[in-house]
From TrEMBL:
This is Checkpoint protein Rad24. The keyword Transit peptide does not apply. GO terms for cellular component: nucleus. Keywords: ATP-binding, Cell cycle, DNA damage, Nucleotide-binding, Nucleus. It comes from the Eukaryota. Belongs to the rad17/RAD24 family. It is found in: Nucleus. The keyword Ribosomal protein does not apply. GO terms for molecular function: ATP binding; chromatin binding; DNA clamp loader activity. Transmembrane segments: none annotated. One of its GO terms (biological process) is mitotic DNA replication checkpoint signaling. It holds the Pfam family Rad17. Its main location: nucleus. It comes from Wallemia mellicola.
Length: 576
């Protein structure tokens, strides 16, 4: 395969963004340095879509830094057995591998091995199984917390994956992990992932410009290596189609390019003789080329989030947009409508809802959340918007409690998409609309951070009757404090808690989705309206804290003897 034969041999040949390579290099340099930071560089988690260069970047940087890479291979991938010939269970194999790799160095017979070594875990254990997952968590926890062994960093590769259409509802998606999805929080225990010994670096899908440059360089290299071979160079427009369908997966793009180069793809150029300038393809040739590439690539890749939303919101139909795109409508039987329903007739749509369901890169709930945030800008009037809103409301009520059903998710998706396509105007109204990310994710992040801050402070606020219930603080205490105390008299951390309950997200400036977005990053710098915009003057007066609000005990300054006497008095009163 070209993806292996023409794999990069040095860091400069990588198609990964230089900033990500720099972050990875910086972490590796710190892990092998003699500084105090080296003891905290024990575990690195690389996340991202498949084919974005995670493991290749690690291996090339390790080679450049003269670091030996010890790669873990999951034997259960290659043989069906719960125990190997030595009686070692699959749940303990990973733990034993980490322990031996961190303690003993590989044998060297030619003195070429380095003193520095790195453990690369790409073939993950079966963390979907409870026993194996707990054993793997214990192994990683022991490796990070054990200070007796020399520092041998571990790099874990976690590629984004999941079962299409079953990601749970949007509320659960930001809080829990789906049982069918292997992500960083399932591979690494939460206390280690959020602790000082673990670092996470996310690799984005390969950018379009990097992909095109890399594919053209690969074709030139293959032409030079095989001057007399049977090789047809695909047309530039064919390469653009391959890049569009790859969605940032360079491995998939190279495999599709190899197949396209070994067959008589319409518009391909012969590499024999001098290089000729490619002429623009005719409409019929372009159609044949797109059909051939669709057969080669459509089962390996999915539409990115931007294009999958734009296909629905732009609502292209047969007879309106045929000059730039050939109709791929559903083969539906012609049904004559009665006169009173003739106004509901629509031309065949370019969007195939069943294929769209197979190609969306996110679960159904997330896709419909993005659709509900963006559809109002593309409607012509309130009546059309009401039809879409009714379909989305029906999907919410139907999906509750049944989000694990794949059949239901497919049916709900097709119903909402068909209702939306029927309601949206055609041709699409162009007002310079932008597809934006919902404010839900930022609001949910703020909610989690606020609750976590309240929990942290409530642990320190111990009253004479014990620890205060967190829900009571959120529901009863905080809403009243802003009416009892002046903002300038409230301590800053408590003031932030009060603000948490009063934030508004209705005029949130949502980010515009880029064409290469396959992920849903959290909005870090989002401008929201804060109705409690306090300006506190510096003064020497004591500011009110959560302890004051709850009448809590200061455990550090409280007189133990006095506390015991008060407890004894309360016991006597209760006994009487």
């Amino acid at each position: 395969m070209w993806s292996e034969f023409y794999a990069p041999s040095k860091v400069s040949e990588l198609a990964v963004h230089s900033r990500k390579v720099g972050d990875l290099r910086h972490w590796l340099e710190e892990s092998f340095s003699d500084t105090k930071l080296s003891k905290y560089r024990k575990l690195l988690v690389l996340t991202g879509t498949a084919g974005c260069g995670k493991s290749t970047a690690v291996k090339l940087l390790a080679k450049e830094m003269n670091v030996d890479v010890i790669e873990y291979l999951n034997e259960s991938t290659y043989k069906y057995s719960n125990e190997d010939e030595y009686g070692e269970s699959t749940s303990k194999r990973f733990s034993n591998f980490l322990g031996k790799s961190a303690t003993y160095k590989p044998l060297s017979f030619n003195n070429e091995r380095s003193n520095k070594q790195l453990i690369l875990v790409e073939d993950l254990p079966n963390v979907l199984e409870y026993t194996t997952r707990e054993a793997s968590h214990d192994a990683l926890r022991g490796h990070c917390l054990d200070g007796r062994t020399p520092n041998v960093p571990i790099v874990i590769i976690v590629s984004d994956s999941g079962v299409r259409g079953t990601g749970g509802n949007a509320d659960e998606m930001v809080q829990t992990t789906n049982r069918d999805v292997v992500d960083a929080r399932m591979v690494v225990p939460r206390d280690i992932l959020d602790g000082p010994f673990c670092t996470t670096i996310h690799f984005n899908p390969i950018a379009r410009t990097f992909l095109k440059k890399h594919l053209n360089a690969l074709l030139d290299r293959h032409r030079d290596d095989n001057p007399y071979g049977s090789f047809k160079r695909p047309h530039d427009e064919a390469i653009d189609v391959i890049i569009d369908t790859a969605s940032g997966d360079i491995r998939s793009a190279i495999n599709t390019l190899q197949l396209a180069s070994q067959m008589a793809l319409p518009g391909s150029l012969s590499t024999s003789g001098h290089k000729r300038k490619a002429k623009p393809l005719s409409k019929s040739t372009r159609v044949d080329m797109e059909k051939t590439l669709d057969v080669l690539a459509r089962r390996e890749v999915s539409l990115n989030l931007f294009h999958s939303l734009a296909k629905v919101l732009r609502n292209k139909r047969h007879g309106f947009d045929d000059e730039d795109k050939v109709c791929s409508c559903e083969d539906l039987p012609h049904v004559s409508l009665p006169e009173h329903l003739e106004y509901k007739r629509r031309a065949p749509s370019h969007v195939h809802p069943t294929r769209l369901y197979e190609d969306i890169p996110v679960d159904v709930e997330t896709y419909l959340l993005f659709l509900s945030h963006n559809y109002p800008a593309f409607n012509q009037d309130c009546d059309d918007a009401a039809v879409v809103a009714d379909a989305l409301s029906w999907s919410d009520s139907t999906y509750i409690g049944y989000n694990d059903s794949k059949q239901l998710s497919a049916s709900v998706f097709e119903y909402v998409i068909r209702k939306t396509l029927h309601a949206l105007p055609c041709p699409s109204i162009k007002r310079g609309q932008k597809i934006r990310k919902p404010a839900f994710f930022f609001a949910e992040k703020e909610r989690r951070n606020g609750i976590e801050s309240i929990k942290q402070n409530s642990r320190l606020a111990v009253t004479i009757h014990g620890q205060v219930d967190t829900n009571a603080i959120i529901v009863d205490t905080l809403p009243m404090l802003s009416r009892i105390w002046e903002p300038k008299d409230i301590e800053k951390s408590l003031r932030n808690m009060i603000q948490f309950g009063d934030k508004r997200f209705d005029n949130l400036k949502s980010d515009i989705i880029a064409e290469n977005d396959n992920e849903i990053p959290e909005d870090e710098n989002t401008d929201i309206r804060n109705i409690m915009n306090f300006t506190v003057e510096n003064n020497e007066a004591k500011l009110h804290t959560l302890k004051d609000a709850l009448g809590a005990i200061d455990l550090h300054n409280y007189d133990n003897e006095r506390y015991e006497n008060e407890i004894d008095e309360e016991i006597e009163e209760f006994s009487d």
